[in-house]
């Protein structure tokens, strides 16, 4: 028995979201299968692209922009939302919209601030920068790279430096170095001064966890850094009382919680507690972690042929968190219910 499956028109590869580098070539893929001849065209921000020397469509459907530009005078850049359209005698399919961003590293949003810390105490320095792609942040002390071998130093990827059990030799001028494919930048310098030795001090949480939204399989870092004398003990729990578990869970430095390969079950409110050893004296801080799952199709519409006057049903379901919103397109245009077209069951 020979089963012939006729694919009228379908995408094999749709364009991905990418970060483009200025003055470099950029390629966006669009591969389709189906009955030929098939023509492929591209749009940027919904407007058909003029192809020529600057941008061209290769024979395999890929869009090539020879020299990705950011024109300085006007607002005009090659960044935007791109989609490809495939057309054959059955009709037209429009791909997903690929978001193309220009790599950049703007000025620091915040610089580290000078601090004075008691010997044996805790220092926290922070800097913030919004790079595309996200910048890697390293630290320098007195303009030399900070050694990360010392377990008293914890560098969090979001630009936080924690130093515990501070010693006089830790003092100096600190600055961050942010870098990505677009640029490298240095922050202002901040002074860490180490003052006299410590007296008794109740636990204080210097910085607790932020509310965080991530996608499944990503890594979440929930910060918690506490100071006090004697040194407080930091522990974590979930507000709903469920166990945090052990798989993929690590403590970074003295109290930060790292959750790798996050799943939907990791969503929840996390509580960091700083306890004075041997007592009930404690401080807490909360942060909500939301884990999202991008939409995935569970069921696709199938090609059908029907006599005129008959009816055709197309079904489509998708899973994701939060619940995906479905729309239908016909020949690339949004399908709105009319006399003989009905959308049922939440557009599924
Ligand atoms: C890309 O364009 C910029 C200015 O628009 C120009 O300076 C540069 O030489 C071009 N690069 C290439 C590889 O054509
Ligand atoms: C399309 O062709 C270009 C140039 O030959 C190649 O670099 C690119 O990888 C091809 N794309 C796909 C999806 O095969
Ligand atoms: C850039 O474009 C926006 C609208 O698209 C406009 O409001 C803004 O003034 C423009 N900026 C420059 C520097 O041309
Ligand atoms: C986190 O979100 C809760 C609401 O869910 C809000 O009350 C709280 O202020 C937020 N915390 C931070 C640090 O933004």
Automatic annotation (TrEMBL):
<dbReference type="Pfam" id="PF07679">
    <property type="entry name" value="I-set"/>
</dbReference>
<dbReference type="GO" id="GO:0098609">
    <property type="term" value="P:cell-cell adhesion"/>
</dbReference>
<dbReference type="GO" id="GO:0016020">
    <property type="term" value="C:membrane"/>
</dbReference>
<keyword id="KW-0812">Transmembrane</keyword>
<dbReference type="InterPro" id="IPR013783">
    <property type="entry name" value="Ig-like_fold"/>
</dbReference>
<keyword id="KW-0393">Immunoglobulin domain</keyword>
<keyword id="KW-0732">Signal</keyword>
<feature type="signal peptide">
    <location>
        <begin position="1"/>
        <end position="20"/>
    </location>
</feature>
<dbReference type="Pfam" id="PF13927">
    <property type="entry name" value="Ig_3"/>
</dbReference>
<feature type="domain" description="Ig-like">
    <location>
        <begin position="295"/>
        <end position="348"/>
    </location>
</feature>
<keyword id="KW-1015">Disulfide bond</keyword>
<keyword id="KW-0677">Repeat</keyword>
<comment type="similarity">
    <text>Belongs to the immunoglobulin superfamily. DCC family.</text>
</comment>
<dbReference type="InterPro" id="IPR003598">
    <property type="entry name" value="Ig_sub2"/>
</dbReference>
<dbReference type="InterPro" id="IPR003599">
    <property type="entry name" value="Ig_sub"/>
</dbReference>
<keyword id="KW-0472">Membrane</keyword>
<protein>
    <recommendedName>
        <fullName>Ig-like domain-containing protein</fullName>
    </recommendedName>
</protein>
<feature type="domain" description="Ig-like">
    <location>
        <begin position="1"/>
        <end position="101"/>
    </location>
</feature>
<dbReference type="InterPro" id="IPR036179">
    <property type="entry name" value="Ig-like_dom_sf"/>
</dbReference>
<feature type="domain" description="Ig-like">
    <location>
        <begin position="106"/>
        <end position="193"/>
    </location>
</feature>
<feature type="domain" description="Ig-like">
    <location>
        <begin position="203"/>
        <end position="285"/>
    </location>
</feature>
<dbReference type="InterPro" id="IPR013098">
    <property type="entry name" value="Ig_I-set"/>
</dbReference>
<dbReference type="InterPro" id="IPR007110">
    <property type="entry name" value="Ig-like_dom"/>
</dbReference>
<keyword id="KW-1133">Transmembrane helix</keyword>
């Amino acid at each position: 028995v020979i089963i012939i499956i006729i694919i009228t028109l379908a995408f094999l590869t749709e364009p991905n979201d990418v970060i483009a580098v200025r003055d470099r070539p950029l390629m966006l893929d669009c591969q389709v299968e189906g009955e030929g001849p098939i023509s492929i065209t591209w749009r940027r921000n919904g407007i058909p692209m003029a192809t020529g020397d600057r941008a061209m469509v290769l024979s395999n459907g890929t869009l090539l922009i020879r020299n990705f530009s950011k024109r300085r005078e006007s607002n005009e850049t090659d960044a935007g939302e791109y989609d490809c359209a495939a057309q054959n005698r059955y009709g037209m399919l429009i791909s997903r919209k690929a978001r193309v961003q220009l790599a950049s590293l703007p000025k620091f949003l915040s610089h580290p601030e000078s601090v004075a810390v008691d010997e044996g105490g805790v220092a926290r320095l922070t800097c913030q920068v919004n790079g595309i792609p996200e910048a890697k942040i390293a630290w320098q002390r007195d303009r030399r790279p900070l050694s990360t071998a010392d377990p008293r130093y914890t560098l969090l990827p979001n630009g936080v430096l924690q130093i515990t059990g501070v010693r006089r030799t830790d003092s100096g001028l600190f600055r961050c170095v942010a870098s990505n494919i677009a640029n490298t930048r240095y922050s202002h310098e901040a002074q860490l001064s180490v003052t006299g030795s410590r007296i008794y001090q109740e636990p204080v949480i210097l910085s607790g966890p932020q509310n965080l939204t991530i996608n499944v399989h990503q890594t979440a870092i929930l910060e918690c850094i506490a100071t006090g004398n004697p040194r407080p003990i930091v522990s974590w729990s979930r507000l709903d009382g469920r166990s945090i578990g052990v798989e993929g869970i690590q403590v970074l430095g003295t109290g930060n919680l790292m959750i790798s390969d996050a799943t939907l079950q990791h969503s929840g409110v996390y509580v960091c507690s700083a306890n004075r050893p041997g007592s009930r004296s404690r401080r807490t801080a909360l942060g909500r972690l939301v884990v999202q799952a991008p939409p995935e199709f569970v069921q696709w519409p199938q090609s059908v042929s029907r006599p005129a006057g008959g009816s055709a049903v197309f079904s489509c379901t998708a899973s994701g968190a939060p619940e995906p919103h479905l729309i239908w397109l016909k020949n690339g245009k949004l399908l709105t219910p009319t006399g003989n077209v009905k959308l049922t069951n939440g557009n599924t």
